Amino acid sequence: MQWPVEGPFLRDQLLRLPGTEKLSGIDKQRATNDVWLDLNGLQGDRVADHRFHGGPDRSLCHYPADHYRHWCRLYPHLQAIGPAAFGENLSTLDLDERQVCIGDRFRWGDALIEVSQPRSPCSNLDRRHDARGLARQLAKSGRTGWLYRTLEPGAVRPGADLHLIDRPCPTASVLRVWRRSMNEDISDTELTWLAGLSPLASEYRTRFRQRLDSRRRQQDQGALF
User: Fold this and answer.
1) How far is CA 214 from CA 7, 87, 184, 220, in A?
2) Is 169 in contact with 101 (CB distance < 8 Å)?
């Protein structure tokens, strides 16, 4: 299976978010030439805060173009938004969080990439678009997008299609993992599965493992009384 891609998008110079002194790389522009994708991301794509962006488990951000219609309805002043508006490096139609799974491997240009985690929306989206609560709405709706790790670096030409190569975890949709990360009431069985889901980024697996360990400690303490 393959999908036409809008992108790659990148930001070669950090800009201040509107109304702040905070620098950000969220306002990305379409590349006009081939771009090299390495383990940390697209060459020339600047990252302002490496605690939350970029790096081996977050080398690329993908946001479904179909979602923009929803945000235009919810925020009428955003009628002009489209691919790259939310800081993504690539965007597609007819591919979303319900379909894409953690561990999915895609060939994009010469590079091989793997879905590593849902995107965690941040308040920079609110500031970038003067849309209070936008990041919270992304999180609540599950329209988060997702991140990749780079398995094989390579050149990506503008408009290169995205080719699905492998799907080793067909039940681990991005939406399922995101919903479980936001839900404190999931079962021990589900937490154990998520904590052991090897293609999932380590920060997510650690979080699920901590929740499971905390729950078991509470159960052990309760058994003493």
Assistant:
1) 42, 35, 12, 10
2) yes
pTM of the predicted model as reported, rounded to 2 decimal places: 0.93
State the number of CA atoms in the 13 A half-sphere of 25 facing the CB: 21
CA distances (Å), 48 to each of 13, 139, 146, in order?
Answer: 10, 22, 19
- For residues 26 and 48, what is the distance between their CA atoms, to the nearest angstrom? 9
61-to-28, 73, 185 alpha-carbon distances in Å:
11, 23, 29
> Rounded CA gap, 55 and 1, in Å?
27
Decide: helix, strand or coil at residue 3. Answer: strand
112-165 pLDDT, tens digit each: 999 999 999 988 999 989 989 999 999 999 999 999 999 999 999 999 999 999
Q: Alpha-carbon distance 9 to 195, whole Å?
A: 32
Is residue 21 within 8 A of residue 49, CB to CB? The reply is no
Task: Return the DSSP state at 91.
Answer: B
Report the C-alpha dihedral over residues 106, 108, 113, 118, rounded to 10 degrees.
-80
Cβ(88)–Cβ(62) under 8 Å? yes
Confidence at residue 199, expressed as pLDDT on a 0 to 100 scale: 98
**Are 72 and 78 a contacting pair, CB within 8 Å?**
yes
Kindly write down the DSSP assignment for every residue of 172-190, as one continuous string: -BHHHHHHHHH-TT--HHH
